[in-house]
């Protein structure tokens, strides 16, 4: 079956739509809702490719004033869980944990791939955020497919820089979702490149339950991003 790929403008609008949805959960409700399982499988698209956040099975409700919350166990899916969720030495669990998951997901949207090194056999892995960070810092060709003009290149670069800010190990260095929206909608020239990610790539999950629904971003009959 021939795969159909979403255009960069559509990917950009999807990433912005998800950011707006998360911003509403974090700030738009009377109580703050932390999703704790932002990943491709939990993003649904309608026929206009408008994203909807789904599956609130791991969500936690807290007051808008609470900056740090307590959890008895790690919540989320391997590959998208913020460091502080599974190891408290990285910081407190908060709405910034959703920001991390969002960043990892958007990086997958941009790359159309998981943490697999390009040009090597399937047993070799690198941490994809480091690879893409190097490309941004060098300001060379991003090595991304289907970019046909400067507008698309700008959209891809915005998504990458914002995502790299979102996956900073220290939660205090991550932007809020309101700031994410501001950065995505603002000028590329106003975006600073964040510090280099230094966490190692997690082990590849053995179950297909953890595989990325954003790989190649295939558009099939389903309205989800799987």
Automatic annotation (TrEMBL):
The question of whether Zinc is a record keyword is answered with no
Q: Which InterPro entries does this UniProt record tie to the protein?
A: Kinase-like_dom_sf, LRK10/LRL21-25-like, Prot_kinase_dom, Ser/Thr_kinase_AS
An annotated GO cellular component of this protein is: membrane
| Polar residues composition-biased segments | 208-226
Q: Which UniProt keywords apply?
A: ATP-binding, Glycoprotein, Kinase, Membrane, Nucleotide-binding, Serine/threonine-protein kinase, Signal, Transferase, Transmembrane, Transmembrane helix
Q: Where is the composition biased (Pro residues)?
A: 194-205
- Which Gene3D superfamilies does this chain map to? Transferase(Phosphotransferase) domain 1
The Protein kinase domain, residue ranges = 1-199
Q: Chief subcellular site? A: membrane
Region (Disordered) location: 194-226
GO terms for molecular function, please? ATP binding; protein serine/threonine kinase activity
Q: Which PROSITE patterns match?
A: PROTEIN_KINASE_DOM (PS50011), PROTEIN_KINASE_ST (PS00108)
Instruction: Indicate where this protein resides in the cell.
Output: Membrane
Quote the SMART domains the UniProt record gives. Answer: S_TKc (SM00220)
Disulfide bond among keywords: no
Q: How does it sit in the membrane?
A: Single-pass type I membrane protein
Protein name listed in UniProt: Protein kinase domain-containing protein
Please report the organism this UniProt entry assigns to the protein: Rhamnella rubrinervis
């Amino acid at each position: 079956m021939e795969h159909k790929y979403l255009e960069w403008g559509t990917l950009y609008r999807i990433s912005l739509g998800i950011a707006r949805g998360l911003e509403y959960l974090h700030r738009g409700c009377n109580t703050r809702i932390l999703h704790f399982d932002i990943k491709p499988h939990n993003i649904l698209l309608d026929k206009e490719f408008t994203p909807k956040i789904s599956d609130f099975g791991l969500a936690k409700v807290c007051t808008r004033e609470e900056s740090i919350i307590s959890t008895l166990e790690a919540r989320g899916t391997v590959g998208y869980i913020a460091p502080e969720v599974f190891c408290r030495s990285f910081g407190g669990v908060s709405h910034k944990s959703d920001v991390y998951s969002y960043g990892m997901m958007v990086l997958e949207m941009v790359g159309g791939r998981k943490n697999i090194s390009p040009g090597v056999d399937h047993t070799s892995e690198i941490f994809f955020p480091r690879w893409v960070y190097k490309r941004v810092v060098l300001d060379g060709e991003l090595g991304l497919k289907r970019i046909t003009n400067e507008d698309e290149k700008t959209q891809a670069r915005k998504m990458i820089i914002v995502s790299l800010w979102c996956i900073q190990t220290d939660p205090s260095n991550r932007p809020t979702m309101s700031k994410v929206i501001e950065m995505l909608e603002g000028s590329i020239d106003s975006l600073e490149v964040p510090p280099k990610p230094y966490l190692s790539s997690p082990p590849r999950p053995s179950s297909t339950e953890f595989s990325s629904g954003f790989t190649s971003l295939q558009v099939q009959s389903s309205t989800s991003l799987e």
